[in-house]
């Protein structure tokens, strides 16, 4: 049987997918309307059916277009509605959830964010992180300094310079 409370309070990425499916406006709770509309669209009328949809929702993360939509949704979902940017702690947590297991450079990028002076991440920066993670090789060999894909200050940080481009991951 599905422990709904445990599922809803877990840091599992499937909860973000569920929130996206429900078109939830705010992190931390679902309105009754969001829940009913989302459960109807998922064809779930009980917790057992929701349990049966969890693997399906996780599998949607493997589709690049759907993942990009979920990633973009996550920015507005996680930010305080009276702010235009994400506070850095929330941004780091959401990035860890979304990219932590799949982007080889994420540990270095996360450490860069930990040491940076930035207090917030705006939507353009948020979008650029995904684009950077998808298009730039782990050894940074295809990075174009003049290209549109930028992660402000990341490539000039001491973390990148500490071991050189070819030994980047040994910085940790």
UniProtKB/TrEMBL annotation:
Signal peptide per UniProt: 1-19
Pfam families in UniProt: Cullin_binding (PF03556)
Domain DCUN1: 1-161
Places the protein is found: Cytoplasm, Cytoskeleton, Spindle; Nucleus
GO CC field: nucleus; spindle; ubiquitin ligase complex
Principal location listed in the UniProt entry: cytoplasm
Classification via InterPro entries: DCN-prot, DCN1-like_PONY, PONY_dom
Keyword line: Cytoplasm, Cytoskeleton, Nucleus, Phosphoprotein, Signal
Gene Ontology molecular functions: cullin family protein binding; ubiquitin conjugating enzyme binding; ubiquitin-like protein binding
Biological process (GO), any one: protein neddylation
Assembly description: Part of a complex that contains DCUN1D5, CUL1 and RBX1; this interaction is bridged by CUL1. Interacts (via the DCUN1 domain) with the unneddylated cullins: interacts with CUL1, CUL2, CUL3, CUL4A, CUL4B and CUL5; these interactions promote the cullin neddylation and the identity of the cullin dictates the affinity of the interaction. Interacts (via DCUN1 domain) with UBE2M (N-terminally acetylated form) and probably with UBE2F (N-terminally acetylated form).
Biological role stated in the UniProt entry: Contributes to the neddylation of all cullins by transferring NEDD8 from N-terminally acetylated NEDD8-conjugating E2s enzyme to different cullin C-terminal domain-RBX complexes which is necessary for the activation of cullin-RING E3 ubiquitin ligases (CRLs). May play a role in DNA damage response and may participate in cell proliferation and anchorage-independent cell growth.
This protein's name: DCN1-like protein
Species of provenance: Cyprinus carpio
């Amino acid at each position: 049987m599905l422990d709904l409370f445990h599922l809803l309070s877990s840091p599992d990425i499937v909860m973000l997918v569920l929130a996206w499916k429900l078109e939830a406006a705010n992190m931390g709770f679902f309105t009754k309307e969001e829940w009913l509309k989302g459960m109807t669209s998922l064809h779930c009328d009980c917790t057992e059916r929701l349990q049966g949809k969890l693997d399906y929702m996780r599998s949607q993360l493997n589709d690049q277009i759907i993942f990009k939509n979920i990633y973009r949704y996550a920015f507005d979902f996680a930010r305080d509605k009276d702010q235009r940017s994400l506070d850095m702690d929330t941004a780091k947590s959401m990035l860890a959830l979304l990219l932590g297991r799949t982007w080889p450079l994420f540990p270095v990028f996360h450490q860069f964010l930990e040491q940076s002076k930035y207090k917030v991440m705006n939507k353009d920066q948020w979008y650029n992180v995904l684009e950077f993670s998808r298009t730039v090789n782990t050894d940074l060999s295809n990075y174009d300094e003049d290209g549109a894909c930028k992660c402000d200050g990341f490539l000039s940080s001491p973390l990148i310079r500490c071991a050189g481009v070819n030994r980047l991951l040994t910085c940790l």
